[in-house]
Amino acid sequence: MGVPKGTMRETLHSQTYEASAARPGADSRVAPRFALMLRSAKLIADGAEYLCITRDVSETGLKLRLFHPLPQAGSLQLETASGARYPMELVWESGGEAGFRFLRPIDVDGFIAEGGPFPKRPVRLKVSHPAVLESGGQGIAATILDISRQGARVETAARLAIGQKLRIRARELPAFDAVVCWRREPHYGLVFGQIMTLEELAQRASRMERNAVDDTPPGAPRRSV
Questions:
Q1: Cα–Cα distance between 160 and 184 in angstroms, integer?
Q2: Rounded CA gap, 68 and 8, in Å?
Q3: Could you tell me where the beta strands, DSSP code E, fall in 85-164?
Q4: At CA 21, angle to CA 19 and CA 22, rounded to 5?
Q5: Which of 22, 145, 169, 188 has the smallest C-beta neighbourhood within 10 Å, fewest atoms?
C-alpha cells in the first residue's frame, strides 16, 4: 500500500543504507527509513560547521551527502535550517557520503518538517576568515564571521553605512560585489551580488575553517599569533 495521503512521510520507502546494520554484530531489527527531498544542513564537528545534504533518515540514523572528507572530531551534530540540532556518531564514510547513528531516537515527522527554534533560513556557516572590504579606493580590514551562498556577516573597526556598495576580497573568496544590508557595530551584514553554488560554499567554508590560523588575504594585515 502507498503512504497515506496527508502524512509527513510523503516520500517513498527507501531500501538504502541502514546505519545500525553497518557494524559487525549490529542488531538487524532496524527502524524503517524514508527517502527525503535533498535538503541542505550543517554538520557541526567539535564546534566547526560544514555544509552537507540530508539524503534519508529514520528514527535511529541518517545518510548525508558530503562535499569534502569529514574532519576528525570528538562530537558530531546535525543542525537543520530551523536551528534544530541532533547529536550523532559516525558509522561509515565512502564516496562523498556518510552514515550516522543518532545518539537517541528522533521524531522523523518533526525532522522532515524541519521544526526548530528559528524560522527556516538559508544555511550560514560559522567561520573566522580575514578579508578586505574595498570602498572608495580604500581597503578596509575585516573578518568574515559567517557566510552563506548569498551573503556574509563581517566584523570591522570601520564604520559602514546601510546600503553602502563595496567589494569583498579574501584568500578563500573571490572578489564579490556586495551591499551592506544591516549594521550592529562592529558587525555588518553583506548581501553578495552573485550567489554561490552549494558545493562552492561548502568547499570555500571548509578551507576557511582548515586555514583559520594562518589565512591572510592579499592586502590584509597579518594577524599576530
A1: 10
A2: 31
A3: 85-94, 97-102, 125-135, 138-147, 151-155
A4: 70
A5: 22
Strands 125-135 and 151-155: unpaired
CB distance 53 to 97 below 8 Å: no
Would you call the peptide bond into 186 cis, given omega within 30 degrees of 0 as the criterion? yes
- Domains observed in the chain: 19-113 (2.40.10.220), 125-210 (2.40.10.220)
d(CA 80, CA 4): 26
Which residues, in sequence order, are bridge partners of residue 134?
Answer: 139, 167
The DSSP call for residue 37 is E
| Positive/negative CA dihedral, 101, 102, 105, 107 | negative
Alpha carbon distance 177, 167 (integer Å): 4
What's the grid cell of residue 106?
528522533
Q: Which residues in the chain come in under a pLDDT of 50?
A: 1-29, 213-225
pLDDT tens-digit profile of 130-151?
999 999 889 999 999 999 999 9
CB-side neighbour CA atoms (13 Å) of 70: 27
CB atoms inside a 10 Å sphere around CB 175 = 11
* Strand blocks (E) in 58-209: 61-65, 76-79, 85-94, 97-102, 125-135, 138-147, 151-155, 165-170, 173-184, 187-192
For residue 85, give the amino acid letter: R
